[in-house]
Amino acid sequence: MEDTKDTPETESEFSIECFQNYTAPEVFIQGLAGIVAQQDVETMIRAQKQMLQRFEKTNEMLTNCNALSANRLKTVGPEFKKHTQLLVDMKKDLDYIFKKIRAIKTKLSSQYSDAFAEALRSSLAEECKEDEDLNENNTKEEAANPNNNSSVNCNTKRNNSISSDSDTQIDSNIN
Known about the structure:
KXD1-like; single chain; KxDL_dom; KxDL domain-containing protein; 0% strand; 88% helix; mainly alpha
C-alpha cells in the first residue's frame, strides 16, 4: 500500500486545513513573518515605540499649552473688551470735541474774519519757525541746502490750513 500522506495532493490539503482557522490577514502576516528577519521586525517595533513616546510627550505638551492659553484668554478677554470699549468711547468723545471746535472756528471766522485769518497766519508762522530751528539743529548739510524741507513744510501747512478753513466753512454751511 502506498502512503497517501506523501503525495502532493495531501500536502496541499494539509496546508489548507492548517490555515482554515485563520483569517486572510493573519495568513498574509504569517507568510510575511517567514520572509522578514525577526531582528528587523524588533528594530521597527522599537523605533515605533520611541516615536509613540515622543508623540505622546508632544501631545501632552500641546495639551498643556492649549490649557494655559485658554486660561490666559479667559483672564485677558474681559480686560481686552474693556480697553476696546474705552477706545471706542474716547473716539466718540474726540469726534464730538473736534466737531464742536470746527463749529466754534466757523463761527469765529464768520464773525471776526480778519482777526481769525491773522491769528491763523501767526500760529502757522510760529510753527514754521520752530520747524526751521529744529532742522538747523539736526545737521549742517540741511541748513546749507537752499531747498530746505522746513519751507516746504510751512507751505504745506499753509495750504492745508487754507483748505481746512474752506472745508470748515463748507461743513458749517451744510449744518
